[in-house]
Amino acid sequence: MSTTVTEIWKRIGQIADVHVDRHFVIDNKTHSNCLVDLSGLTNPENTGLLREVAIELFRRTIAEGRFDTNKAVMMVGTALLDTKLVELMREINESEPMIESLVPAEIREEKLFVGSDLVNSITPETQVILVQALLQEIKSVNKTIGSVIRPLGSGVRAISSIIDQSGLEADDFGVPFVIALRSVEVLHFDLSTGTCPLCSEGRPIVKNRGQGEEHKRHFPKYKGGYIDL
Ligand SMILES: [Zn+2]
Fold it and tell me: How far is the CA of 17 from the centre of ligand 1 (A)?
Protein backbone atom coordinates (compact mmCIF):
# COMPACT_ATOMS: atom_id res chain seq x y z
CA MET A 1 0.00 0.00 0.00
CA SER A 2 1.38 3.35 -0.97
CA THR A 3 1.68 6.04 1.68
CA THR A 4 0.34 9.48 0.90
CA VAL A 5 2.57 12.52 0.83
CA THR A 6 0.63 14.03 3.74
CA GLU A 7 1.26 10.99 5.92
CA ILE A 8 4.92 10.92 5.00
CA TRP A 9 5.23 14.65 5.61
CA LYS A 10 3.58 14.37 9.02
CA ARG A 11 6.00 11.66 10.06
CA ILE A 12 9.05 13.54 8.83
CA GLY A 13 7.81 16.64 10.66
CA GLN A 14 7.51 14.71 13.92
CA ILE A 15 11.19 13.80 14.10
CA ALA A 16 13.03 16.27 11.87
CA ASP A 17 13.26 20.02 12.22
CA VAL A 18 10.88 21.23 9.54
CA HIS A 19 9.12 24.52 10.12
CA VAL A 20 7.46 26.66 7.50
CA ASP A 21 5.80 30.09 7.75
CA ARG A 22 7.79 31.22 10.79
CA HIS A 23 10.40 33.87 11.42
CA PHE A 24 14.00 32.70 11.93
CA VAL A 25 17.27 34.52 12.44
CA ILE A 26 19.81 32.58 10.37
CA ASP A 27 22.77 34.88 11.08
CA ASN A 28 23.28 38.56 11.85
CA LYS A 29 22.55 39.51 8.25
CA THR A 30 19.89 36.98 7.24
CA HIS A 31 16.34 36.25 8.34
CA SER A 32 14.11 33.53 6.87
CA ASN A 33 10.53 32.27 6.90
CA CYS A 34 11.48 28.61 7.00
CA LEU A 35 13.84 26.14 8.62
CA VAL A 36 14.44 22.63 7.30
CA ASP A 37 16.92 20.34 9.05
CA LEU A 38 16.60 16.66 8.19
CA SER A 39 19.74 15.53 10.05
CA GLY A 40 17.51 13.95 12.76
CA LEU A 41 16.56 11.31 10.19
CA THR A 42 20.06 9.82 10.46
CA ASN A 43 19.34 8.90 14.10
CA PRO A 44 19.27 5.06 14.20
CA GLU A 45 15.88 5.03 15.89
CA ASN A 46 14.41 6.79 12.84
CA THR A 47 15.71 4.25 10.32
CA GLY A 48 12.30 2.62 9.91
CA LEU A 49 10.72 5.90 8.96
CA LEU A 50 13.55 6.84 6.63
CA ARG A 51 13.18 3.47 4.92
CA GLU A 52 9.49 4.16 4.24
CA VAL A 53 10.35 7.62 2.94
CA ALA A 54 13.10 6.21 0.70
CA ILE A 55 10.80 3.58 -0.82
CA GLU A 56 8.16 6.20 -1.51
CA LEU A 57 10.71 8.55 -3.05
CA PHE A 58 12.10 5.86 -5.37
CA ARG A 59 8.65 4.64 -6.40
CA ARG A 60 7.52 8.13 -7.31
CA THR A 61 10.71 8.95 -9.14
CA ILE A 62 10.43 5.87 -11.33
CA ALA A 63 6.69 6.33 -11.93
CA GLU A 64 6.63 10.09 -12.57
CA GLY A 65 9.77 10.09 -14.69
CA ARG A 66 8.65 6.96 -16.55
CA PHE A 67 12.15 5.57 -16.25
CA ASP A 68 13.20 2.33 -17.80
CA THR A 69 14.41 0.42 -14.75
CA ASN A 70 16.83 -1.53 -16.94
CA LYS A 71 18.61 1.63 -17.98
CA ALA A 72 18.19 3.82 -14.88
CA VAL A 73 20.69 4.16 -12.08
CA MET A 74 20.37 6.26 -8.97
CA MET A 75 23.21 8.30 -7.69
CA VAL A 76 23.27 9.94 -4.29
CA GLY A 77 25.01 12.95 -2.80
CA THR A 78 27.66 12.64 -0.11
CA ALA A 79 25.87 14.25 2.85
CA LEU A 80 25.31 12.07 5.91
CA LEU A 81 21.63 11.61 5.21
CA ASP A 82 22.33 10.86 1.56
CA THR A 83 24.75 8.07 2.51
CA LYS A 84 22.09 6.70 4.85
CA LEU A 85 19.76 6.66 1.85
CA VAL A 86 22.33 4.55 -0.03
CA GLU A 87 22.36 1.94 2.73
CA LEU A 88 18.58 1.77 2.64
CA MET A 89 18.52 1.71 -1.14
CA ARG A 90 20.76 -1.35 -1.10
CA GLU A 91 18.52 -3.11 1.43
CA ILE A 92 15.41 -2.19 -0.53
CA ASN A 93 17.00 -3.42 -3.75
CA GLU A 94 17.74 -6.77 -2.18
CA SER A 95 14.21 -7.33 -0.93
CA GLU A 96 12.38 -5.59 -3.75
CA PRO A 97 14.55 -4.89 -6.81
CA MET A 98 13.44 -1.66 -8.44
CA ILE A 99 16.49 -0.07 -9.83
CA GLU A 100 20.25 -0.33 -9.83
CA SER A 101 22.01 1.99 -7.47
CA LEU A 102 25.21 3.83 -8.11
CA VAL A 103 27.43 5.01 -5.31
CA PRO A 104 29.50 8.13 -6.00
CA ALA A 105 33.18 7.60 -6.70
CA GLU A 106 34.28 9.56 -3.65
CA ILE A 107 32.29 7.27 -1.37
CA ARG A 108 33.59 4.12 -3.08
CA GLU A 109 37.13 5.31 -2.60
CA GLU A 110 36.51 5.65 1.12
CA LYS A 111 35.26 2.06 1.00
CA LEU A 112 32.22 2.95 3.00
CA PHE A 113 30.19 0.78 0.71
CA VAL A 114 31.10 -2.42 -1.02
CA GLY A 115 30.82 -3.25 -4.65
CA SER A 116 29.36 -1.12 -7.39
CA ASP A 117 31.55 -1.05 -10.44
CA LEU A 118 28.52 0.45 -12.15
CA VAL A 119 30.53 3.57 -12.85
CA ASN A 120 32.32 1.55 -15.52
CA SER A 121 29.06 0.54 -17.14
CA ILE A 122 27.64 4.05 -17.52
CA THR A 123 27.01 4.92 -21.14
CA PRO A 124 25.33 7.92 -22.80
CA GLU A 125 22.08 5.88 -22.76
CA THR A 126 22.17 5.40 -19.00
CA GLN A 127 19.41 7.28 -17.20
CA VAL A 128 21.08 8.80 -14.16
CA ILE A 129 18.81 9.95 -11.34
CA LEU A 130 20.56 12.17 -8.83
CA VAL A 131 19.16 11.68 -5.32
CA GLN A 132 19.57 14.25 -2.56
CA ALA A 133 17.74 14.16 0.76
CA LEU A 134 17.42 17.94 0.79
CA LEU A 135 17.68 19.87 -2.45
CA GLN A 136 18.93 23.32 -1.56
CA GLU A 137 21.07 25.04 -4.10
CA ILE A 138 22.20 24.75 -7.65
CA LYS A 139 25.94 24.95 -6.92
CA SER A 140 26.46 21.57 -5.22
CA VAL A 141 24.19 19.79 -7.70
CA ASN A 142 26.05 21.22 -10.67
CA LYS A 143 29.34 20.21 -9.11
CA THR A 144 28.23 16.58 -8.87
CA ILE A 145 26.85 16.61 -12.40
CA GLY A 146 29.95 18.30 -13.84
CA SER A 147 32.67 16.46 -11.95
CA VAL A 148 31.24 12.95 -11.64
CA ILE A 149 28.46 12.25 -14.12
CA ARG A 150 29.39 14.14 -17.29
CA PRO A 151 32.91 12.72 -17.46
CA LEU A 152 31.25 9.29 -17.65
CA GLY A 153 29.56 10.36 -20.86
CA SER A 154 26.09 10.54 -19.39
CA GLY A 155 23.63 13.24 -18.42
CA VAL A 156 21.26 13.46 -15.48
CA ARG A 157 17.65 12.59 -16.30
CA ALA A 158 16.15 13.66 -12.97
CA ILE A 159 16.91 15.11 -9.57
CA SER A 160 14.93 13.44 -6.84
CA SER A 161 14.69 14.59 -3.20
CA ILE A 162 12.72 14.17 0.01
CA ILE A 163 12.37 17.93 0.37
CA ASP A 164 13.02 20.53 -2.30
CA GLN A 165 13.70 23.94 -0.84
CA SER A 166 15.63 25.24 -3.85
CA GLY A 167 12.71 27.16 -5.34
CA LEU A 168 14.13 26.21 -8.75
CA GLU A 169 12.68 24.43 -11.76
CA ALA A 170 14.06 21.49 -13.74
CA ASP A 171 15.20 23.94 -16.45
CA ASP A 172 17.35 25.82 -13.93
CA PHE A 173 19.26 22.60 -13.23
CA GLY A 174 19.30 21.66 -16.93
CA VAL A 175 17.54 18.32 -16.30
CA PRO A 176 14.17 16.98 -17.58
CA PHE A 177 12.64 16.32 -14.13
CA VAL A 178 12.87 17.53 -10.56
CA ILE A 179 10.83 15.29 -8.30
CA ALA A 180 10.31 15.80 -4.54
CA LEU A 181 8.03 14.33 -1.90
CA ARG A 182 7.47 17.86 -0.74
CA SER A 183 8.50 21.32 -1.88
CA VAL A 184 8.78 24.19 0.55
CA GLU A 185 9.12 27.85 -0.25
CA VAL A 186 12.10 29.27 1.62
CA LEU A 187 12.58 33.02 1.56
CA HIS A 188 15.82 34.59 2.76
CA PHE A 189 15.93 38.26 3.64
CA ASP A 190 19.33 39.90 3.40
CA LEU A 191 19.49 42.66 5.99
CA SER A 192 22.69 44.09 4.55
CA THR A 193 20.88 45.10 1.35
CA GLY A 194 17.30 45.56 2.53
CA THR A 195 14.82 44.99 5.33
CA CYS A 196 13.07 41.88 6.60
CA PRO A 197 9.32 42.11 5.89
CA LEU A 198 8.64 39.71 8.77
CA CYS A 199 10.36 42.14 11.16
CA SER A 200 8.38 45.01 9.61
CA GLU A 201 5.09 43.24 10.25
CA GLY A 202 6.19 42.30 13.79
CA ARG A 203 6.13 38.52 13.36
CA PRO A 204 7.49 36.82 16.55
CA ILE A 205 11.05 35.53 16.14
CA VAL A 206 11.73 31.88 16.96
CA LYS A 207 14.16 32.00 19.87
CA ASN A 208 15.26 28.38 20.23
CA ARG A 209 16.34 27.78 16.64
CA GLY A 210 18.99 29.48 14.53
CA GLN A 211 20.36 32.58 16.23
CA GLY A 212 17.10 33.67 17.87
CA GLU A 213 18.61 33.74 21.37
CA GLU A 214 21.45 35.99 20.28
CA HIS A 215 19.05 38.30 18.46
CA LYS A 216 17.04 38.63 21.66
CA ARG A 217 20.16 39.63 23.61
CA HIS A 218 20.82 42.44 21.14
CA PHE A 219 17.22 43.47 20.59
CA PRO A 220 15.29 42.53 23.75
CA LYS A 221 12.50 44.98 22.92
CA TYR A 222 11.78 43.73 19.37
CA LYS A 223 8.14 44.67 18.80
CA GLY A 224 7.01 41.21 17.66
CA GLY A 225 8.48 39.44 20.69
CA TYR A 226 10.00 35.95 20.80
CA ILE A 227 8.59 32.43 20.83
CA ASP A 228 9.95 28.90 21.33
CA LEU A 229 9.02 25.94 19.15
ZN1 LIG B 1 13.12 39.41 10.41
Answer: 19
pTM above 0.85, yes or no: no
Tell me how far the alpha carbon of residue 156 lies from the centroid of ligand 1, in angstroms: 38
Which domain range does residue 207 map to?
A: 5-227
CA of 210 to the centre of ligand 1 (A): 12
| Tally of domains in the chain | 1
Distance 219 CA to ligand 1 centre (A): 12
- Could you tell me the distance, in angstroms and rounded to a whole number, from the CA of residue 169 to the centre of ligand 1? 27
Predicted pLDDT of residue 219: 95
Question: CA torsion angle for 81, 109, 115, 105 (degrees, to 10)?
Answer: 70
CATH code where residue 88 lies: 3.40.50.2020
Q: What is the mean pLDDT of each run of 10 residues along the chain (229 residues)?
A: 70 82 93 90 86 81 76 67 73 61 46 40 74 82 73 79 90 90 90 95 96 96 96
Q: How far apart are the first and last CA of the chain?
A: 33
Give distance in angstroms: CA of 196 to centre of ligand 1.
5
